[in-house]
Amino acid sequence: MQLLKALWALAGAAICCFLIFVIHSQFLKEGQLAAGTCEIVTLDRDSSQPRRTIARQTARCACKKGQIAGTTRARPACVDARIIKTKQWCEMLPCLEGEGCDLLINRSGWTCTQPGGRIKTTTPI
């Protein structure tokens, strides 16, 4: 009798695990991102000009409601959509720790200034 109860419990647990696996695979198919995350899809660097490197990156994000793809700490991230709409780029904290953020005059992007004086300019497309 105890063995039969144990087998039923084991069978029930196996079915439950299988159902959880099936449901999870339906909601998060291979290649899908979890909500609120981003990944870099392409990254191109052009160093053909002296003392200047142009980098272009494409990110794929799965942002939550009210968020949009942006940049936080020099990495793609989901940020408050209001920041992008109002072009208050520095509010999304795009620069690395210790760097200063400044808006470009026409608000077309931002600069990150390192303590040594090196400046990185970013203009979103």
End-to-end Cα distance, whole Å, is 69 Å
The shape is globular
Number of domains: 2
Largest sheet: 3 strands, antiparallel
Strand order of the largest sheet: 5-6-7
Family: Belongs to the TAFA family.
Protein name: TAFA chemokine like family member 5
Organism: Anolis carolinensis
Pfam families: TAFA
List the helices and strands and how they pair.
Layout: H1 2-27, E1 37-46, E2 54-62, E3 67-72, E4 75-80, H2 81-86, E5 100-103, E6 110-113, E7 119-122
Antiparallel strand pairs: 1-2, 3-4, 5-6, 6-7
Task: Tell me about this structure.
This protein is α+β, with helices and mostly antiparallel strands. The protein folds into 2 domains: 1-32; 37-122, no CATH class. It has 2 helices and 7 strands, in the order αββββαβββ. It has helices at residues 2-27, 81-86; strands spanning 37-46, 54-62, 67-72, 75-80, 100-103, 110-113, 119-122. The strands form 3 sheets. Strands 5-6-7 form a 3-stranded antiparallel β-sheet, with no helix packed on it. A two-stranded antiparallel ribbon has the order 1-2. The chain has a two-stranded antiparallel ribbon with strand order 3-4. A hairpin with a 2-residue loop joins strand 3 and strand 4 (75-80).
